[in-house]
Specification:
By secondary structure, this protein is of the alpha+beta class. Helices cover 41% and strands 23% of the residues. It has a 4-stranded mixed β-sheet with strand order 2-3-5-6. Strands 1-4 form a two-stranded antiparallel sheet. Helix 1 packs across helix 4 and helix 3 packs antiparallel against helix 4. The longest helix is centred in the N-terminal third of the chain and has 16 residues.
C-alpha cells in the first residue's frame, strides 16, 4: 500500500468509526479554510481531517483565527459533496501543512465513504 493509499484508508476508517469529518471555520462562522491546490493550477482545496485533534493542530499561524468544526458524515454526503463538486473544489484528506497531501474529487471521496459504510 502506498503512503497516499494508507493515508486515505486511515482517513476513511476514522470517519467511518466516528461518523464525522472536521474542517476549519472562521470566527464569524461564515467561512471555511480553502487553499490552493499543490497539484492543479487554478484549483481550490478544502482541507478536511478525520479527527478533531488533527484539525485543531492547524489552528495556528495564518489559520489562528479559525476553529475546528465537525461535519457529520451524513451532512457531508447529503449537502457538501454536491456543493463542493459544483464549485470545482477538491478535498485535502487529513491535510498536512508542509507535506504533499492527497487531493480528491469530492465525488470520489463520497463513493469511498459510502462503499465503506456498506461493508
Amino acid at each position: 500500500m502506498t503512503e497516499i493509499n494508507a493515508a486515505l484508508a486511515g482517513f476513511i476508517e476514522n470517519v467511518k468509526q466516528h461518523q464525522t469529518l472536521w474542517g476549519l471555520m472562521d470566527e464569524t462562522g461564515e467561512g471555511w479554510v480553502v487553499c490552493d491546490s499543490s497539484e492543479f493550477e487554478d484549483t481550490d482545496v478544502m482541507p478536511l481531517w478525520s479527527s478533531e485533534a488533527a484539525a485543531k493542530s492547524h489552528c495556528s499561524e495564518e489559520w489562528h483565527d479559525y476553529q475546528a468544526v465537525s461535519i457529520s458524515l451524513e451532512e457531508f454526503l447529503e449537502y457538501w459533496v454536491s456543493d463542493l463538486n459544483d464549485d470545482g473544489v477538491l478535498i485535502g484528506v487529513d491535510w498536512q501543512t508542509d507535506e504533499e497531501c492527497l487531493e480528491l474529487d469530492p465525488i470520489v471521496l463520497a463513493k469511498d465513504l459510502v462503499d465503506v459504510e456498506e461493508v
